Amino acid sequence: MAGPTTAERGERQQESSGPPLRRRRALRLRTIIILAVALALSAGGGLWVLYGSQWARVERVSVTGTRELTEGQVTEAAGVPVGEPLISVDTDAIEARLSRELPRIDTVDVVRSWPHGISLKVTERTAVLLVESDGKFVEVDDEGVRFATVSKAPKAVPLLELTLSRSGSAAASLRRFDEGRLMREAVRVAGSVPAAVARDTQVVKVRSYDDISLELSGERTVAWGSAEKGSAKARTLTALMKAEPDARHFDVSVPTAPASSAS
């Protein structure tokens, strides 16, 4: 008599091992369900901690990096939503408000300090020139941004004078380079002047794009020319002042052909 076929042997083997196999499958399914429930509870608990509990809500705002501004001014302008969930605070919106409300701020980093704080790390603009207006002084930074008006001129910050001619070649220059551009050129000059000279600079005078000069203490003057070749002009001026310490007028508008005079 022929033996059982392959299919019959498979059916008998499955029948003999059926109950244990079904139990293993049920166990695996139960384990998967338990893990899924645990993960769901864990995620839900985490969301509740971040959004629903009192554990991670804004309770304090700290400010660092201020010089002229007060911590109170920065905190008020920031408008941090105290009492709200820390995770939901819109840090970009806070940065935008501070830049809009306090132009003296150059940059600010808004950082979440878990579990209860917001940290405002401020960098203020630094004045490199002053523009006198109605008896007050407008501070201008190294990017040419007018960022604050003060009643008293800060020390060691030169005054900017725009004495622009409206005739001849100067008028043509003014049509090409407006006052905003000329102010930025003056800022470039102020940034190129040697440190020792910068401390003595009282006025940066702009007549045109190519005619920028410095008025120093002791009735000394420097004809700088345009803002171009600032590094070369700075080196030349340093050497010229060392070689001619008694001179009162220096001309480095062409740095390869400098000049000085006592009167």
Describe this structure in words.
Strands 7-8-9-10-11-12 form a 6-stranded mixed beta sheet. Mean pLDDT is 85; it is low at 40-52. It has 2 domains: 60-124, membrane protein fhac (Ubiquitin-like (UB roll)), CATH 3.10.20; 129-261, Rossmann fold, CATH 3.40.50. The longest helix is centred in the N-terminal third of the chain and has 47 residues, at 6-52. Helix content is 41%, strand content 25%. With 263 residues, it is α/β, with parallel strands linked by helices. It is elongated.
The outline comes out as: elongated
User: Roughly how many Å apart are the termini?
Assistant: 135 Å
- What's the CATH topology name of the largest domain? Rossmann fold
How would you write the strand order of the largest sheet? 7-8-9-10-11-12
Please work out how many helical segments DSSP would assign. 7
Q: What's the domain count?
A: 2
Q: At CATH's second level, what is the architecture of the largest domain?
A: 3-Layer(aba) Sandwich
CATH class of the largest domain: Alpha Beta
Give the assembly state of these chains.
single chain
Q: How much helicity do the residues have?
A: 40-55%
Mean pLDDT: 85
Output the structural class: alpha/beta
Order of helices and strands: HEHHEEEEEEHHHEEEHEE
